[in-house]
């Protein structure tokens, strides 16, 4: 029997949820308060230039392509370019270390830059191969809305094998003696806004995955995925309502029955929240049922530049490390102060994608991890941005400032205005007690027919993982609908 499902939020999680549920034969309404879909997957556009506003690094390509295939999007729709080298890390002492997909080249590079660390790297890759497979099957591919399904002997054994009780940085000491190399394999927790000195060693699998599964670039920019998904929503007949907002959910007991969309009351059989989970709970008056004190991910200062030249010699992705990475992380996550000597990331896609800028020109993107929260007025911290652009020029992009055609800046203040939890850029922080069963699940507790998908729900942040969240949610929701149907029939 066809049911009506209403989804509040048109981010990647909401769009993938809609496609799975529509494919199952249900009526689906997707409500998005903004004029465009895609959430954090968006472009910054200016004067004929465009650059990704948010995510830039395409990880887990098989998961990404597999989910798209399941919702009817052919792989040929995506122009994915494999990057090898993956990226380069520039250290303050002048050392430069490049990562590769090719194992032989990687060993040669480690022997060149970090003599005597090659055996540790080989051990790291060998041990992580088994752990990744087991971890993916046990945790990424399962929902834990029924908590007992997490606390099994098999799962506890896998968690011990994954060293979940240790931090990323401490776990890496088993493999690498050089602090710089440990930093190179720990910084990936920042992809999802986590502190490598606090995040569970489970997240060491991200740096393994880069070598094992590769890093890709989506031609046209990662945000071009939004148009592909929106086209499929239209093709499948999902009812998309933009510039409209779900402002209230109405319940009868534990069952949601209607949503207030602008001034209209819309009935549905099930409801899905696609938004930053803690903020959504508060908006819909459900925060009293979930009183946990959530911890936000890190914030970011992003600087977007349109340039009148190209930097052909600079890789697509680079990380520039400060002198004391641990001090930077302390400032971001503990003292919550403006970093004095921050590490930062750069994205230089025009060298492989001329569609992003006028001929002979380029775009450049810089990301600096900073504290989340509302205690810093970033609009007043213009010196910080100018100092970072100056550092960027000195460390990797000579004569940069004279080449700038336009500049835009995004800070945690913008994230706060957009409803992201405490201005964090990546949803909830990926610490141990906000991972797995401890993270908000795809079915909202104490409700019969309210579900959630997104970066703050299990299994976590990052575009393919958010898509996996939507897949898990759809599976649970469809099973619940089927169970309810069977109860009605038997009754």
UniProtKB/TrEMBL annotation:
It is an enzyme of class 1 (oxidoreductase). Residues 12-477 form the Amine oxidase domain. Its EC number is 1.3.8.2. Keywords: Carotenoid biosynthesis, Oxidoreductase. Pathway: Carotenoid biosynthesis. It holds the Pfam family Amino_oxidase. InterPro entries: Amino_oxidase, Carotenoid/retinoid_OxRdtase, FAD/NAD-bd_sf. One of its GO terms (molecular function) is 4,4'-diapophytoene desaturase (4,4'-diaponeurosporene-forming). Belongs to the carotenoid/retinoid oxidoreductase family. CrtN subfamily. This is Dehydrosqualene desaturase.
């Amino acid at each position: 029997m066809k049911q009506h499902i209403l989804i509040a939020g048109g981010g990647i999680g909401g769009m993938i949820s809609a496609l799975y549920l529509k494919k199952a034969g249900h009526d689906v309404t997707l409500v998005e308060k903004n004029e465009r879909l895609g959430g954090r997957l968006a472009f910054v556009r200016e004067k004929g230039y465009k650059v990704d506003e948010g995510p830039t690094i395409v990880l887990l390509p098989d998961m990404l392509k597999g989910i798209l295939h399941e919702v009817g999007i052919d792989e040929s729709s995506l122009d994915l370019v494999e990057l090898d080298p993956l990226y380069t890390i520039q250290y303050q002492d002048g050392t430069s270390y490049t990562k590769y997909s090719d194992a032989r080249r990687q060993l040669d590079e480690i022997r060149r830059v970090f003599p005597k660390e090659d055996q540790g790297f080989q051990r790291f890759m060998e041990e992580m191969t088994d752990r990744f497979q087991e971890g993916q099957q046990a945790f990424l591919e399962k929902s834990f809305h029924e908590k007992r399904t997490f606390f099994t002997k098999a799962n506890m054994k896998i968690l011990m094998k994954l060293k979940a009780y240790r931090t990323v940085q401490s776990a890496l000491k088993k493999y690498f003696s050089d602090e710089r190399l440990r930093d190179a394999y720990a910084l990936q927790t920042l992809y999802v806004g986590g502190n490598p000195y606090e995040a569970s060693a489970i997240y060491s699998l991200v740096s393994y995955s880069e070598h094992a599964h590769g890093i890709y670039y989506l031609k046209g920019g990662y945000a071009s995925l939004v148009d592909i998904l929106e086209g499929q929503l239209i093709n499948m007949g999902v009812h998309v309502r933009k510039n409209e907002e779900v402002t209230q959910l109405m319940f009868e007991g534990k069952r949601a029955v209607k949503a207030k969309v602008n001034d209209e009351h819309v009935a549905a059989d099930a409801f899905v929240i696609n938004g930053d989970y803690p903020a959504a709970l508060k908006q819909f008056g459900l925060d009293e049922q979930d009183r946990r004190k959530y911890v936000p991910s890190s914030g970011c200062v992003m600087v977007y530049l349109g340039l009148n030249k190209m930097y052909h010699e600079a890789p697509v992705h680079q990380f520039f490390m400060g002198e004391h990475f641990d001090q930077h992380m302390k400032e971001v996550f503990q003292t919550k102060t403006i970093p004095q000597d921050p590490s930062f990331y750069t994205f230089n896609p025009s060298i492989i994608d001329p569609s992003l800028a006028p001929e002979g020109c380029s775009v450049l993107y810089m990301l600096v991890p900073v504290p989340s929260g509302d205690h810093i007025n970033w609009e007043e911290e213009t010196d910080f941005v100018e100092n970072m652009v100056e550092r960027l020029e000195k460390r990797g992009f000579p004569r940069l400032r004279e080449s700038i055609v336009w500049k835009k800046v995004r800070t945690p203040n913008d994230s706060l205005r957009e409803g992201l939890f405490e201005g964090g850029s990546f949803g909830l922080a990926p610490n141990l007690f906000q991972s797995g069963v401890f993270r908000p699940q795809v079915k909202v507790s104490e409700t019969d027919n309210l579900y959630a998908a997104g970066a703050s729900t299990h299994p976590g942040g990052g575009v393919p993982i958010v898509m996996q969240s939507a897949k898990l949610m759809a599976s649970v929701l469809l099973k619940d609908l089927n169970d309810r149907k069977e109860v009605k029939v038997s009754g």
